[in-house]
Design a protein that fits this description.
Aminopeptidase; about 25% helix; disordered N terminus
């Protein structure tokens, strides 16, 4: 049996307008703007040192789950978040106008 995958914890940093995931000292981010009950995802970035390890997927899933928990409508201006939602129909109900 292989080594257990490290759990990637995603936290909201409202002061910086982004969700964050720290892996091995590297910071992955999903930036957003918040307007009342809408969250607009604008940019996702994962350092090359931790790419191809599921970090971006965990970041997108964590951010969208937190948006759902807060009853926010999602606008996906970030291409990664947009493609993630297209591939994961369970998040499509979150989309608001302009997505």
């Amino acid at each position: 049996m292989g080594e257990a995958e490290e759990e990637i914890v995603v936290v909201d940093n409202p002061a910086e307008h982004r969700f964050e995931a720290k892996v091995e000292g590297h910071l992955a981010i999903a930036e957003y703007m918040r307007y009342d009950s809408t969250i607009v995802f604008t940019h996702t970035e994962v350092p090359k040192e931790i790419q191809r390890r599921g970090v971006a997927t965990a970041l997108a899933r964590g951010a969208l789950e937190q948006a759902r928990a807060q009853n926010l409508r999602v606008v996906a201006r970030c291409q990664f978040i947009k493609r993630f939602i297209e591939r994961h129909p369970e998040y499509q109900a979150l989309l608001g106008a302009g997505s």
